[in-house]
Amino acid sequence: MKEIRTVDAVGQVLCHDMTQIIPGVMKDARFRKGHVVTEEDIPVLLSMGKEHIYVWEKDDSLYHENEAAEILCSLCMNDHMERSEVKEGKIELKSTVRGLLKIDTGLLDRINSQGNMMIASRHPNTPVEPGDKLCGTRIIPLVIKKEEMEEARKLCKGKKIFAVLPYLDKKVGLVTTGSEVFHGRVKDSFGPVLKAKVEEFGGQILGQTVTDDKPEHTTEAIMEFIRQGADMVLVSGGMSVDPDDKTPLAIRNTGAEVISYGAPVLPGAMFLLSYYKKDGKNIPITGLPGCVMYSKRTVFDLVLPRLMADDPVTKEDLDKLGKGGLCLSCDVCYYPNCGFGKGW
């Protein structure tokens, strides 16, 4: 790349896009990278304030910003994504499916620490819809050393920084505990809420079983859904530390591995997550506290998209939710476009 006087630029090839701004009329590239300057272009360039312009000077050790942008995009783009055209060293990626955005945050940080290139994205573990923007990538200078892009490739070691996991058509069993509901003294309020949340992610409700406070009855109800082929069982009620709340015991008695009883999230501190192993599959069994029944958003809204996408949740994952784990219960709920649950 070299700088020359605009009046001497006829026949030269522009090495970058040149934006023209006419207030109220346009703000876009008037001349694109690769354009061969003509006599007629000179007055236009001068009217844009370009007394001097940069033209391409071949250097085998450098990439133009758009060439480098293609490499950076290739490190990010994965299945279920579509990309924009490259423009001024920038490419954006969008989702093509309903699913869960996953990010290798350590790798993202290392790429961004390289300098001369950047990737800005949504938060990881965010539910996305078709057409939702996932990230934007950009090369900062007009040209960049090839060795810098090669270093970015080496950092990735063939891995992609981003992935979108589509939601799966899971079969879900509902078990509602509590003698007051079992005997018809109180109307069940959990069922409609859980049904709506599961179906939002494409799940199928196998059915709902109401049990009394005896843990053996709840355990049997859970196992019956698993025998019916349930991919997940949601157990609601009886999740506090009161002596007569036996749901955690009932879940443990299935033989499931309890990942965590408790999560640093409000609402939802008494949430329980476990996995039951069957035929090589890990079937989530959750214990849902009462807040899921009446609060707009709880820990269940943070975990459910991951379960519906078959994305394993660990205790370490749940522990991270404390940062941003306080729902502000806004009058108008904007979740997931807010800070709630962005800690992981």
3D architecture notes:
By secondary structure, the protein is of the alpha+beta class. The protein has three domains: 54 residues, Molybdopterin biosynthesis moea protein, domain 2; 105 residues, Aldehyde Oxidoreductase, domain 3 (Alpha-Beta Complex), CATH 3.90.1170; 152 residues, Molybdenum Cofactor Biosythetic Enzyme, Chain A (3-Layer(aba) Sandwich), CATH 3.40.980.10. Helices cover 26% and strands 29% of the residues. It has eleven helices and 19 strands. The strands form six sheets. Strands 15-14-16-19-18-17 form a six-stranded mixed beta sheet, sandwiched between helices. Strands 6-7-11-9 form a four-stranded antiparallel beta sheet. A hairpin with a 6-residue loop joins strand 6 and strand 7. Helix 2 runs parallel beside helix 4. It is elongated. The two termini are 43 Å apart.
